[in-house]
Write a structure and sequence with these properties.
heterodimer; A: five-stranded antiparallel beta sheet; 11 strands; 60% strand; B: four-stranded antiparallel beta sheet
Amino acid sequence: KQEVTQIPAALSVPEGENLVLNCSFTDSAIYNLQWFRQDPGKGLTSLLLIQSSQREQTSGRLNASLDKSSGRSTLYIAASQPGDSATYLCAVLNTNAGKSTFGDGTTLTVKP
Amino acid sequence: GAVVSQHPSRVICKSGTSVKIECRSLDFQATTMFWYRQFPKKSLMLMATSNEGSKATYEQGVEKDKFLINHASLTLSTLTVTSAHPEDSSFYICSARDPLHEQYFGPGTRLTVT
């Protein structure tokens, strides 16, 4: 059974700092890995999708990496802004499963 | 990115009544849709996986007669909370998977049962 862990559970940084969020998974037989952002009381917004054959994806100030063999993914946020404050979740879709497994998320606070 | 809509965004109902929530994928055909429940400051809890044209697959502990799911077309899935009780009050979120296996979420529905 796939297990997804996100560390840390919460993170607070000053504006402008670069930061890394971590996601680890136990079963490396994955189809893809997706990073989401959730604002309080809202649905999830897809940030980046990495296919199993890819090593990284970039969108603006965000860069996500994937190391399947070690069961790890990181989300790098450059030059953080207060508007980046949200909960970030990673989700892993296994090749033999019809549903994704979500981590519990990292709640990020960027202080002005 | 792709858009998934959810309606209503907020609903208040009396105990014992039923509530229907709609989830639509607006710009792609979704063979698979998912329904989640989320409690305050908690992670997502998958309730069921909905496949177009077939019965939904419910997660362990989710009552299928309580939470009726209908995936009527490739762009529409509905969740009906039957005989709602205050403990059913929660934030319900749907998502749809596109043909490339990317998952998109609706904005959520806040259900309050009085």
